[in-house]
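Below is how a single chain appears once it has passed through the pipeline. First comes the sequence as given, then the structure the pipeline wrote out for it. We keep one example in the README because the format questions we get most often are answered faster by looking than by reading.
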Amino acid sequence: MTEKKISPSRAALKLRARAKNKKPKFVRAESWKYDRFSLSWRKPRGLDNKIRRKIKGWPPGPSMGYKGPKIARYLHPSGYREVIVFNVEGLSTIDPNTQAARIAHTVGKRKRAEIIAEAKKINIKILNLKVSKEIAEEKTEEAEGETPEAEVKEQKAPKEEKKPKKETKKKAPKQTKPKTKKGEKKQ
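Resulting structure:
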């Protein structure tokens, strides 16, 4: 009698997946007939177009009826609602249980680092978190203890072996006969 309680976002994602399975694959009109047309959807605009006119027997076109379920709209595949953050103050409006932060692409390196540090304190998930190479190297050095740079270079050197290029034979250029001018005889 004990049933697992599924979180609302998980239920919404399952509902969205079920609705997506029912939705047909929309194809461009007569793309099956001509190779020059790709399968990707283009709105039919012709007067006699059968898909535009919704003629029976022709493939369906997209319409409002195929919209996803209302509770699943604007959900990230992780189940969180996305909130765009421009600065540290923007994190204060986010609910860590239902929402996740996406740092705006215009935010610079220094402010991005501040936002990430604050988000970790508040326990907010960041959707577009990328660890830069500098930060990753610092963490590995701290974990291993400080290793000299020469050893690190030696470790990388064996991986970078280059194979010699094959020599190709070059063809000699064709010798052309000089053209005869008008009135001269050929030899």
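Residues 9 and 79 are 5 Å apart (CA to CA).

See the next section for the split statistics.
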